[in-house]
């Protein structure tokens, strides 16, 4: 089968689009950066792609809250296109700010079923316990379940770089529900939770396993020399983060 | 129009971070502000003021629930302006204070000050289908335990900055969000003909022109010859173009310099020292010249690979940062990024650097002169300002330094640097006659009026009230959008030249671009943030995030469409008319007309005296000891040396995906890396190395040695990670005091001579530079007498190196027990300005010199060894000498050291132990080498002095001996000493 086409969503303030597109290319995809204004003009454009990736950055400055404005545009103005995209069995990946966008857009199936429109949000990404932006590498454990992107991954290191990435949950019942549904697919290793996320959650997927949002940046570990200890450990070749992009591409084999 | 106020309070169970921070800060000031014994307690909310012609309560509810509030972590409260529920303190605070009175405070940006949050909210509300929304953001605090009449003062001290924000005590009663009023046009002439010298200088001062007498006289003569009075905009244009900030007239002027070797006259000091060295190197290289464009564009450009060049520029933003640390540093970073964007036909920003000089953070409030912000607030504001611009732009901040000295109290230094990548065929620009003048990006407002002239003046305790308008707040996302457009337009060939709108605004940008052609500008065409700007304000405003292009007529349509597609505003402001004149019009009426020749060549030369007298030397006589462990711990814990992890972690140093050597390295990612390495092209293995050197302490002894040491330090930091010493480009940034004093200027000329000499010797060209003079703060002392604090002469040298394959790079952390440790380079008796002298509070000694022949041999040898893969770790030796370098390598690697320095190459040490452990001689490294590579390593070093001094041990202990004295400490103790001081 031909390489899947990946739409890397540009927006005012998105700033990880180039390296994210490069990661998809290295994994064998055909990645194209597309400005959100083009999608808003013609939402049908989305149908030409198999993967939608919302990259990291500061969409619209994160001015009201991280990902809020772009997430609102997806939720209100691109709702139908996004729904069709998911119904067609395609993949959606949100990294860092992209995760915040997916969360804000309601594309991660986190709210209790039937609560659609009732305003009863179950989870959010809030200010870090540290109270400021923080960049560091963390170790993560994956429990992929149905999640396409994390297939075959158990433990992986990646960097986080954010101020608003604390996974906050409405109550313990909501947490139990998401855990039982197998949606809490990526967790910070013990002692490595950088922001106070509930249950050490670093990434969540939707109920189908085809939509993933995560705070760490896999596109920043596609080459060994990006790892902070590569001069110590003799790492060479590609970085472990590339596996996430390969999983997305090979899903369409 | 009805106004609504929306408050967003932390939901139950969520931490009120703003309030906790306020309580912590207020606790320190309890005695001054508290109403009684009870602690000062607070609650906070963030808020929005919203108005829209068609809005009703239901509209606002929808805006709140769909856009503003997060239902999981926030509790929203909305009401019409004046609704008493909005003023009511949160129940939780009422409960905590148990009946004490609670005051209410609001902090809002002053009308007209950039409010990016409000701007984004307006866009998003319009997206919801609400027409013409107006928004202002605010912060709100309820405070108990403070005397009511001191609430405002507390707020000004801890929460707001008067330069940009206003404090409202009690309920808000705002009736309109409209910032401006219509401008009534009136062409203003300035009567200059009849003024005597005193009158001219008064006009210069009171008009904030900050020109010198000879310059004012030249202007007076020009207009007398023309038989007319200048208009206000003509005077402003001349003042901006001739300002120190824009023309660097002191250092590029005539200087009569005298030192211990005699007299020397310069027609143009910079040209005859630093530029001359670069030119000579380039001539010598001939066909192998790898410099592309030096000292003429916004940044210096050198060759990188077969298709691309790299450029580098470092700027300062000192005065704005003194008044408003966040905004000053924020726009400092934004400004230097625009330098990259405005280089050639536009370079892509790939990494940033930041170097700060502050007063010690523990300076007591009682020692602060009037008008000076507490150093800790300056530090936190500056770091946050750089953070929020660089991170939002998606440019990794990869390298930097922080220096501390009491004399930076009223005048902190904020250096921001940026490097860019630019294709070979886009590295030059040339505006063409009759091209359109096009401005894109942010709108023009009243922010930043007089920045160019203000930054050329000395700061005083009244600067804030005089020059508040010179302070700006940035909007990084606007600049990111401009970047996205600019790089696409460049690749499509839509313009012939571009430059940034920095100091001087349109005046500077259009004046520079049209220098060889002429220009006509239609000032009413500039899009404005709000009504009411005069034609002069439009012309000299330094509103951020604007770039100016010269666009051929037949490209304008495509350029305009591209901008529109990305949501960037673009406007035609005029035309580069081939008249040789600058003509300014406003709605068809000519408001100013000046020959370009007068602007660019009409300034009378500045003539200055400069003198240098070497200070008397005295010996450095430390008390003899046999255990120096305490001294080493104190050095590691001194502010200049201590870990800057608190700063570094707030910066994204990995965005763009090219990170190779990070600022913090080692087994726990917390050791002090020597230089950063990035891979700017993800398809290539070629790396760019960024490093710096700065040590104002040596300037106390000799600014020649200070400059030479800074150059050596920048180069050896780069070499330590693997940079090729034959491909290093340098930048100079001089920050000095008032150079009208001949001895101050003399110390600068001496540093420039060192730059010349070392650049030639190392074959490392200076490719760009900048100076910031008048870094002094003056105020009236208790007795009414004028007091002045001048900064110490401070030269920052930045280096940009290259490495052919990033996989060859090395870090400074020890790698494996059993490996050998080598000292490379020669240790001399150079204790003057050392950190041992600092912690022992001793004077005397000599500052480190640079033996350039020896240094070149050492750099070449270490590079050869690294290039051949023979070096497991390498660290430069600087503050604290060999002992500090070894300690840092050990705790970064989590491995022990057993070393005896007695065999380390040395020369002329008066006290061998002290010199071997702590001397700060230049051009030295410590290298870790696997024993099987030892022979090849020594061969690779060639004639560079070296000795095996010990080995890496599988312990948690560092033991260093030298001539009978020793340092012995556990890794944990060393690391704690180093990390504790700035672990905020």
UniProtKB/TrEMBL annotation, chain A:
GO terms for biological process: 'de novo' IMP biosynthetic process. Keywords: ATP-binding, Cytoplasm, Glutamine amidotransferase, Hydrolase, Ligase, Nucleotide-binding, Purine biosynthesis. GO terms for cellular component: cytoplasm. GO terms for molecular function: ATP binding; hydrolase activity; phosphoribosylformylglycinamidine synthase activity. InterPro entries: Class_I_gatase-like, PRibForGlyAmidine_synth_PurQ. Pfam families: GATase_5. This is Phosphoribosylformylglycinamidine synthase. It is an enzyme of class 6 (ligase).
UniProtKB/TrEMBL annotation, chain B:
The active site is at 245, 317 (proton acceptor). Residues 200-249 form the Phosphoribosylformylglycinamidine synthase linker domain. Coiled coil: none annotated. Belongs to the FGAMS family. Keywords: ATP-binding, Cytoplasm, Ligase, Magnesium, Metal-binding, Nucleotide-binding, Purine biosynthesis. Monomer. Part of the FGAM synthase complex composed of 1 PurL, 1 PurQ and 2 PurS subunits. Mg(2+) 2 binds at residues 339, 500. It is an enzyme of class 6 (ligase). GO terms for molecular function: ATP binding; magnesium ion binding; phosphoribosylformylglycinamidine synthase activity. Its EC number is 6.3.5.3. This is Phosphoribosylformylglycinamidine synthase subunit PurL. Part of the phosphoribosylformylglycinamidine synthase complex involved in the purines biosynthetic pathway. Catalyzes the ATP-dependent conversion of formylglycinamide ribonucleotide (FGAR) and glutamine to yield formylglycinamidine ribonucleotide (FGAM) and glutamate. The FGAM synthase complex is composed of three subunits. PurQ produces an ammonia molecule by converting glutamine to glutamate. PurL transfers the ammonia molecule to FGAR to form FGAM in an ATP-dependent manner. InterPro entries: PRibForGlyAmidine_synth_PurL, PurL_linker, PurM-like_C_dom, PurM-like_C_sf, PurM-like_N, PurM-like_N_sf, PurS-like_sf. Residues 297-421, 673-773 form the PurM-like N-terminal domain. It catalyses: N(2)-formyl-N(1)-(5-phospho-beta-D-ribosyl)glycinamide + L-glutamine + ATP + H2O = 2-formamido-N(1)-(5-O-phospho-beta-D-ribosyl)acetamidine + L-glutamate + ADP + phosphate + H(+). It is found in: Cytoplasm. Pathway: Purine metabolism; IMP biosynthesis via de novo pathway; 5-amino-1-(5-phospho-D-ribosyl)imidazole from N(2)-formyl-N(1)-(5-phospho-D-ribosyl)glycinamide: step 1/2. Residues 432-585, 816-961 form the PurM-like C-terminal domain. GO terms for biological process: 'de novo' IMP biosynthetic process. One of its GO terms (cellular component) is cytoplasm. ATP binds at residues 313, 732, 769.
């Amino acid at each position: 089968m031909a390489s899947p086409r990946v739409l890397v969503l540009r927006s005012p303030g998105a700033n990880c689009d180039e390296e994210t597109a490069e990661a998809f290319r290295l994994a064998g995809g055909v990645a194209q950066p597309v400005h959100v204004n083009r999608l808003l003009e013609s939402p049908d454009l989305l149908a030409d792609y198999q993967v939608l990736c919302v990259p990291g950055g500061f969409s619209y400055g994160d001015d009201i809250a991280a990902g809020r404005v772009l997430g609102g545009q997806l939720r209100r103005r691109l709702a139908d296109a996004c729904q069709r995209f998911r119904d067609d069995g395609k993949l959606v990946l949100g990294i860092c700010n992209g995760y915040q966008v997916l969360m804000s857009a309601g594309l991660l199936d986190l709210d209790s079923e039937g609560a659609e429109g009732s305003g009863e949000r179950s989870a959010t990404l809030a200010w870090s316990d540290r109270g400021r932006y923080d960049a560091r590498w963390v170790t993560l454990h994956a429990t992929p379940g149905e999640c396409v992107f994390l297939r075959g991954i158990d433990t992986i290191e990646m960097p986080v770089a954010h101020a608003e990435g604390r996974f906050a949950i409405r109550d313990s019942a909501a947490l139990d529900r998401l855990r039982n549904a197998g949606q809490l697919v990526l967790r910070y290793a013990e002692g490595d939770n950088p922001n106070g996320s509930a249950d050490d959650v670093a990434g969540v997927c939707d109920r189908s396993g085809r939509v993933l949002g995560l705070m760490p940046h896999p596109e920043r570990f596609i080459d060994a020399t990006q790892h902070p200890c590569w001069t110590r450990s003799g790492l060479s070749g590609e970085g472990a983060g590339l596996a996430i992009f390969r999983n997305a591409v090979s899903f369409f084999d | 129009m009805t106004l609504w106020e929306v408050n967003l309070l932390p939901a139950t169970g969520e931490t009120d971070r703003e309030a906790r921070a306020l309580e912590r800060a207020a606790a320190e000031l309890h005695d001054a502000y508290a109403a009684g014994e009870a602690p000062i307690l607070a609650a906070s909310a963030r808020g929005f003021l919203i108005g829209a012609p068609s809005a009703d309560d239901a509209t606002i509810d929808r805006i709140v629930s769909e856009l503003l509030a997060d239902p999981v972590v926030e509790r929203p409260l909305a009401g019409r302006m004046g609704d008493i529920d909005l003023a009511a303190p949160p129940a939780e605070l009422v409960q905590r204070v148990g009946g004490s009175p609670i005051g209410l405070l609001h902090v809002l940006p002053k009308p007209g000050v950039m409010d990016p949050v409000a701007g984004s909210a307006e866009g998003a509300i319009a997206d919801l289908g609400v027409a013409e929304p107006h928004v202002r953001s605010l912060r709100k605090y309820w405070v108990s335990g403070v005397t009511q009449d001191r609430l405002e003062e507390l707020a000004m001290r801890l929460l707001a900055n008067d330069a940009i924000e206003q404090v409202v005590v009690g309920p808000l009663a705002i009736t309109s969000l409209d910032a401006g009023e219509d401008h009534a046009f009136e062409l203003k002439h300035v009567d200059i003909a009849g003024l005597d010298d005193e009158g001219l200088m008064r006009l210069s001062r009171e008009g904030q022109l900050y020109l010198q007498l000879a310059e004012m006289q030249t202007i007076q003569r020009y207009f007398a010859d023309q038989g007319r009075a200048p208009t206000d905009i003509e005077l402003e244009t001349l003042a901006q173009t001739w300002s120190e900030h824009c023309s660097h007239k002191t250092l590029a002027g005539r200087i009569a310099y005298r030192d211990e070797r005699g007299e020397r006259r310069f027609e143009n000091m910079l040209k005859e020292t630093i530029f001359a060295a670069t030119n000579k190197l380039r001539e010598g290289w001939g066909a192998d010249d790898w410099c592309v464009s030096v000292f003429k564009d916004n940044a210096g450009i050198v060759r990188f690979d077969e298709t691309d060049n790299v450029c580098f520029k470092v700027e300062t933003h000192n005065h704005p940062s003194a008044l408003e640390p966040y905004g000053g540093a924020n726009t400092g970073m934004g400004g230097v990024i625009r330098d990259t964007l405005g280089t050639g036909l536009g370079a892509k920003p790939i990494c940033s650097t930041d170097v700060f000089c502050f007063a010690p953070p523990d300076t007591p409030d009682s020692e602060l002169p009037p008008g000076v912000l507490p150093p800790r607030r300056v530090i936190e504001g500056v770091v946050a300002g750089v953070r929020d611009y660089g991170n939002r732009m998606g440019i990794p901040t990869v390298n930097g330094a922080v220096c501390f000295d009491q004399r930076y109290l009223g005048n902190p230094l904020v250096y921001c640097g940026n490097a860019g990548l630019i294709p070979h065929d886009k590295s030059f620009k040339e505006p063409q006659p009759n091209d359109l003048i096009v401005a894109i990006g942010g709108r023009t407002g009243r922010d930043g009026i007089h920045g160019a002239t203000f930054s050329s003046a000395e700061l005083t305790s009244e600067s804030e009230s005089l020059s508040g308008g010179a302070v700006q707040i940035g909007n990084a996302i606007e600049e990111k959008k401009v970047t996205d457009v600019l790089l696409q337009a460049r690749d499509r060939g839509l313009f012939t030249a571009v430059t940034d709108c920095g100091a001087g605004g349109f005046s500077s940008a259009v004046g520079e671009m049209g220098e060889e052609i002429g220009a006509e500008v239609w000032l009413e065409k500039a899009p404005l943030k709000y009504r009411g700007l005069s034609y002069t304000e439009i012309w000299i405003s330094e509103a951020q995030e604007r770039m100016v292009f010269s666009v051929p007529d037949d490209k304008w349509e495509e350029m305009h469409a591209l901008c529109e597609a990305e949501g960037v505003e673009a406007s035609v402001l005029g035309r580069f008319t081939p008249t040789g004149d600058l003509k300014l019009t406003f709605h068809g009426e000519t408001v100013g007309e000046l020959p370009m020749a007068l602007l660019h060549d009409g300034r009378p030369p500045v003539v200055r005296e400069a003198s240098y007298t070497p200070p008397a030397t005295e010996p450095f006589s430390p008390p003899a000891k046999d255990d120096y462990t305490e001294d080493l711990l104190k050095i590691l814990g001194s502010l200049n040396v201590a870990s800057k992890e608190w700063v570094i972690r707030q910066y994204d140093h990995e965005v763009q995906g090219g990170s190779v050597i990070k600022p913090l390295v080692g087994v726990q990612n917390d050791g002090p890396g020597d230089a950063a390495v990035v891979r700017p092209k993800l398809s290539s293995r070629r790396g760019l190395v960024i490093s710096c050197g700065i040590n104002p302490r040596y300037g106390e002894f000799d600014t020649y040695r200070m400059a030479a040491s800074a150059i050596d330090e920048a180069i050896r930091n780069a070499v330590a990670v693997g940079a090729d010493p034959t491909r290093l480009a340098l930048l100079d940034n001089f920050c000095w005091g008032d150079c009208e004093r001949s001895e101050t200027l003399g110390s600068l000329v001496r540093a420039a001579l060192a730059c010349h000499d070392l650049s030639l010797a190392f074959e490392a060209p200076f490719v760009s530079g900048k100076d910031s003079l008048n870094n002094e703060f003056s105020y009236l002392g208790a007795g009414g007498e004028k007091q002045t604090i001048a900064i110490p002469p401070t030269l920052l040298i930045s280096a940009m190196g290259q490495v052919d394959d990033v996989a060859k790079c090395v870090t400074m952390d020890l790698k494996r027990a059993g490996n050998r440790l080598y000292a490379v380079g020669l240790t001399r008796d150079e204790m003057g300005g050392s950190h041992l002298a600092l912690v022992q509070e001793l004077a005397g000694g000599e500052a480190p010199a640079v033996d350039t022949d020896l240094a070149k041999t050492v750099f070449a040898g270490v590079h050869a060894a690294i290039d051949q893969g023979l070096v497991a770790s390498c660290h430069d030796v600087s503050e604290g000498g060999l002992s500090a370098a070894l300690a840092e390598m050990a705790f970064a690697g989590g491995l022990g050291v057993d070393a005896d320095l007695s065999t380390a190459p040395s020369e002329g040490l008066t006290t061998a132990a002290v010199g071997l452990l702590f001397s700060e001689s230049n051009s030295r490294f410590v290298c870790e080498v696997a024993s099987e590579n030892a022979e090849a390593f020594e061969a690779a070093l060639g004639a560079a002095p070296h000795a095996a001094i010990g080995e890496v041990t599988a312990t948690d202990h560092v033991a260093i001996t030298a001539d009978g004295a020793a340092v012995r400490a556990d890794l944990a103790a060393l690391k704690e000493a180093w990390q504790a001081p700035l672990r905020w």
